[in-house]
Amino acid sequence: MTGAAAAREPAPRILTREDGAAIAYHTCAGRQPGVVFLGGLSSDMTGTKATALDAACRAAGREFLRFDYFGHGASSGSFTNGTIGRWVDDAIAVLDHLTEGSQVLVGSSMGGWIMLLAALRRPQRVAGLIGVAAAPDFTETLMWARYDDSVRRTLETEGLYLEASDYSAEPYPVTYRLIEEGRHHLLLDAPVAISCPVRLIHGMEDGDVPWQHALRLVETLSGTDVRLALVKDGDHRLAEPPHVAEICATVLALCEALEGA
């Protein structure tokens, strides 16, 4: 979203969690199944994919909701106090308090992990899943496993490592708490008991989450209605207009199929 567009957008609404944390969100009414967008690590609900899906769902008359996790975007809290479990709880709170009926969860990067964990906890509410460069288990397989001994020692002794980002001039903080707590939510070493339709879209030029990671997820899911689309020229963000258009079309097509089932 451009600065001008963001300035025109109304202020987000707020869901207050039991501990007083404020979770910011935008929503629009429409027919079900609704769509809930789950963003990536350090991302927020004003990003390209989130706002494009918002516009596409509004145009199609489809219910839609996007929100910021604790410590992200317009929500309260410090990013370094966040964990996978905390952010899954935010997603569950959004599902429970801000939506009704069946929902399709769209998870981008870390959001792909969050959507799987949410579906396991609310199987009756989740009608379908769409992962965009989905990154389940990333704290272990894509962070810890790749860190050298020096980085691991920094995390273990100081609790914090500042990792260079390809998307910002500022490094983003990785906490040892994020790594340790993430180990309670790992999925890919055993069958994942999710039977709803799953659609995965992954760029083959993704330098953050290799496309082979998506194959591992496909193999792990217990359901049979699982489709993976590999985008040969796609990077991790999949934010170029053709890629965003494919994501929106995939989301709306799955919703329409579920609505007609």
Broad structural category: alpha/beta
Question: How far is the N terminus from the C terminus?
Answer: 34 Å
| Low-confidence sequence ranges | 1-5
Q: Please count the beta strands (DSSP E, at least 2 residues each).
A: 10
Strand content: 15-25%
- Mean pLDDT metric: 95
Write structural notes for this entry.
This protein has nine helices and ten strands. By secondary structure, it is α/β, with parallel strands linked by helices. The longest helix has 20 residues. The two termini are 34 Å apart. The N terminus is likely disordered.
Topology diagram in text:
Blueprint: H1 3-8, E1 13-16, E2 22-28, E3 31-38, H2 48-60, E4 62-67, H3 84-98, E5 103-108, H4 110-121, E6 126-132, H5 138-144, H6 149-158, E7 160-163, E8 172-175, H7 176-182, E9 198-203, H8 211-220, E10 226-231, H9 241-260
Parallel strand pairs: 3-4, 3-5, 5-6, 6-9, 9-10
Antiparallel strand pairs: 1-2, 2-4, 7-8
Helix pairs in contact: 2-9, 3-4
